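To: structure desk
From: M.T.
Subject: fold request, one chain
Message: Could you run this one when you get a chance? Sequence is below, nothing fancy, just the single chain.
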Amino acid sequence: MPPLLCFPGLDLCHEDTVKCVAGDRRVSVEKVAVTYQMRLQDPSRLFKGDSSPPLRLSSLDESHVDLVNRTWKFGQGALSVRMIQDMICSFPSCCLLNEEGKAVAWILTYATCALGLLYTVPEYRGRGYAKILISTMATRLHAQGYPVYCFIEENHLSYKLFKLGFTEDTLL
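Reply: Done. Structure tokens follow.
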């Protein structure tokens, strides 16, 4: 059952159209989340924390695929493993490694250039690591001339995080 993402402000007839076409093709759809598109307009508004966090800044590699898949809300086992593997191997990512070299927080980039899959393991939360990762990736992508944006679920904690430098963007 493929997920149906809906965006605030998007005409509801779009959702109805998707459901109608899916019904005609005998494909079921399920509304999973309502998301906001957030865009970075001004990099100077990004979080400017300690430039040398207590953990080591790095990129994800193939050894992290299963970890990311297990922690991703929309991870669907083997179905999403390939997508995550492609993201890690083909597009920019950023992570923080603890003293043992284990990834404790990360952010990836989708093929569309959107930031995503931001996650911090529970015992490392509340230390500003997500802000460091967002700022690092956004600054890197912006410096290379890429648009910097993401999709955040309605009523999700990440919405508050991305409001620190990002603004809501209208889709249509």
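Reply (cont.): The CA atoms of residues 105 and 125 lie 9 Å apart. Let me know if you need anything else for the meeting.
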